[in-house]
Amino acid sequence: MARAFTRWWPHKHEGDLCSLAHLHPFRFTMELPASAAYAARVVEIRVGFSCHTFTREPRGTDIGIQPYLSRGNEVRMFCHERYPLSKSLPDVVKSLPTRKCYFARRENYFVVQNHPLLAAGQEYRVFFDVRHTGMADAVLLFVQSAYPANLDKGTPYGLRRKKVGFRVLVQHALRNTKPVLSP
Questions:
Q1: Residues 6+ apart with CB under 8 A from 114
Q2: ∠176-177-182 over CA atoms, to 5°?
Q3: Coil, strand or helix at 90
Q4: Is the pLDDT score of 94 beyond 70?
């Protein structure tokens, strides 16, 4: 996960400039209520986005199309399906404190979102991780990928949708631990 989040540059396609300013890093705060073990506190959530939220893997049919090179020179292709959906990501992220999240396979999590741009039988899947910053009242939230998926293909990687609250993820990140996915 990136320590300093990227500010993505715009993409030019057929004379149109596609701004990516909506995917620039931002911060918001969330209140954690008091519990038997911890006092109430306000936590800063520092948010960054991967280029996988608006790009896709190259295909053999991409001959003559300009690739989008990420910060690490990863070759990706600007995706005209993911890009318009990505405009909703800041709102999806800001809504996480009131939502249930799901465990994914690679020590990360995801949420699903209905979106008016999607066809019937599709959902928008947003994958992220939450990490310790080394500071007492701040965590890093990195949106790793987001894409439309057909519901008939099941859940990501065939996993059951085991729920976990976002507040639980933040509390674990503050302690530099991970919640355990029970069998």
A1: 123, 124
A2: 165
A3: helix
A4: yes
- Tell me the residue type at 62: D
Beta bridge partners of 13: 16
Quick one: tokens of 121? 């039988």
- Using 50, 70 and 90 to split pLDDT, how confident is the model at 155? low
Q: Rounded mean pLDDT of 87-100?
A: 96
Phi, then psi, of 168 in degrees rounded to 5 = -65, -40
Tokens of 26: 């931002």
Residue 52: band (very low, low, confident or very high) from pLDDT cuts 50, 70, 90: very high
Burial of 35 by CB count in 10 Å (0-12 exposed, 13-18 middle, 19+ buried)?
A: exposed
In sequence order, the β-bridge partners of residue 110 are 102, 127
Q: What is the pLDDT of residue 68?
A: 78
Q: Which residue has the tokens 């099941």?
A: 154
Answer yes or no: is pLDDT of 72 > 60: yes
Among residues 62, 88, 89, the alpha carbon closest in space to that of 77 is found at 62
Collapsing DSSP states into helix, strand and coil, what is residue 45? strand
